């Protein structure tokens, strides 16, 4: 990674700092990764605009970050500006329409609970997902046979040149864990979801609680991870394929294929991003050798890695 040889940039009019050489390990659920050459987490639209004005004058790449719960960032870090939307937060539940409009940084699980408390259905699936609304829109996050695409009406996005657009669910070209926003360099500012009103609070809370319990009993939440590492191929679940190879518990360094769920790779303490990467590569190689099937990572792998 190129080191930024300076002190923080202060965007004083909007009370926002752009930090040089900022450690990203605490910004991801894996708790691994090197530094961002520059890092910023604006809290307001004005701070975001000022950040983009600064960015436009630099000749550096841009990487967008939500809660970092689906990212594997290289130990060597990331060149350019890493911009996190995790502190952009507001929400509005409209009782006339049943729509909820939420800023990108709001945790999607929190919105699921708030909807459940109102007796509004549609987001119960999101309760165990530790990411932001922005990340859920981009990833088409899903669980319990439902996903963001099922209730998303539109997303407001902005490009670094300041152009704001409202994209409909159709524009986002959704399919399984993917959208047209992946790699598009358009920042999701807010999203609107259509929910169903008029159910009893107890009923929706019960489904939401049930979903959370089910996940906690089948998935390892006690160690850092990114959730499912691989997309499920159409034939079999990725975890089942890995499990058949006896890879549960297989370790490289301090990264381990979970005993509980073989599609999870855990950081068992001080693992390197490179350990996790090699484990991903190993599982891919083994599955391909046995079933001639290339598992495709769901986790976004960013920065430099080596397969050896
Ligand atoms: C324990 C655990 C369980 C999980 N379970 C599930 C599950 O059941 N289902 C599921 O789908 N996922 C699951 N995940 C993965 C992850 O939580 C989701 O993919 C989530 O939607 C990612 O959101 P995030 O805010 O963390 O995004 P990040 O990981 O920060 O980013 C993911 C991608 O979205 C982009 N992005 C993020 N925010 C924005 C924005 N505002 N504008 C533009 N681009 C943006 C990033 O550039 C990146 O490409 C799990 C993860 C963990 C750790």
Note down, in words, how this protein is organized.
- The chain has three domains: 9-84, Uridine Diphospho-n-acetylenolpyruvylglucosamine Reductase, domain 2; 91-218, Uridine Diphospho-n-acetylenolpyruvylglucosamine Reductase, domain 3, CATH 3.30.465; 238-302, Uridine Diphospho-n-acetylenolpyruvylglucosamine Reductase, domain 1.
- The chain starts with 8 loop residues before the first strand and ends in a 6-residue tail after the last strand.
- The relative contact order is 0.13.
- Strand 14 (251-252) and strand 15 form a beta hairpin.
- Strands 1-2-3-6-4 form a five-stranded mixed beta sheet, with helices on one face. Strands 7-8-13-11-12 form a five-stranded antiparallel beta sheet. Strands 14-15-16 form a three-stranded antiparallel beta sheet.
- The chain is an alpha+beta fold.
- The longest helix is centred in the last third of the chain and has 19 residues, at 273-291.
- The chain is built from seven helices and 17 strands.
- Helix content is 26%, strand content 24%.
- The model has no long low-confidence stretch (mean pLDDT 96).
- The protein has helices at 45-57, 108-118, 133-139, 148-151, 201-218, 238-244, 273-291, and strands at 9-11, 16-23, 35-40, 62-65, 71-73, 78-84, 91-94, 99-103, 142-143, 146-147, 152-158, 164-168, 187-194, 251-252, 255-257, 265-267, 300-302.
- Residues 29, 64-71, 85, 104, 128-132, 134-136, 138-139, 141-143, 177, 182, 187-188, 221, 225-227, 300 line the site of flavin-adenine dinucleotide.
């Amino acid at each position: 990674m190129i080191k930024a040889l300076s002190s923080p940039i202060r965007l004083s009019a909007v009370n926002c700092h752009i930090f040089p050489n900022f450690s990203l390990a605490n910004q991801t659920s894996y708790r691994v990764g090197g530094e961002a050459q520059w890092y910023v987490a604006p809290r307001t639209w004005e701070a975001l605009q000022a950040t983009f004005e600064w960015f436009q004058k630099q000749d550096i790449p841009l990487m967008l970050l939500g809660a970092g719960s689906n990212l594997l960032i290289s130990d060597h870090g990331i060149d350019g500006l890493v911009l996190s939307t995790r502190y952009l937060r507001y929400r509005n539940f409209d009782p006339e329409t049943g729509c909820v409009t939420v800023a990108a940084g709001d945790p999607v699980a929190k919105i699921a609970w708030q909807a459940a408390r109102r007796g509004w259905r549609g987001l119960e699936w999101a309760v165990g997902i530790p990411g932001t609304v922005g990340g859920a829109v981009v990833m088409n996050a899903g669980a319990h046979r439902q996903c963001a695409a099922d209730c998303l009406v539109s997303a407001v996005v902005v490009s670094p040149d300041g152009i704001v657009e409202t994209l409909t669910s159709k524009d986002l070209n959704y399919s399984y864990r993917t959208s047209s926003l992946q790699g598009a360099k358009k920042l999701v500012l807010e999203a609107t979801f259509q929910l169903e009103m008029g159910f009893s609070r107890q009923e929706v809370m019960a489904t939401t609680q049930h979903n959370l319990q089910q996940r906690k009993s089948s998935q390892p939440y006690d160690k850092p991870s990114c959730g499912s590492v691989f997309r499920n191929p159409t034939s079999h679940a990725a975890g089942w394929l890995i499990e058949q190879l006896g890879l549960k518990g297989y370790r490289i360094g301090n990264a381990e294929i979970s005993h509980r769920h073989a599609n999870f790779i855990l950081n068992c303490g001080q693992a390197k991003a490179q350990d996790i990467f090699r484990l991903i590569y190993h599982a891919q190689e083994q599955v391909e050798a046995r079933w001639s099937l290339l598992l495709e990572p769901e986790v976004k792998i960013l920065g430099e890695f080596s397969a050896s």
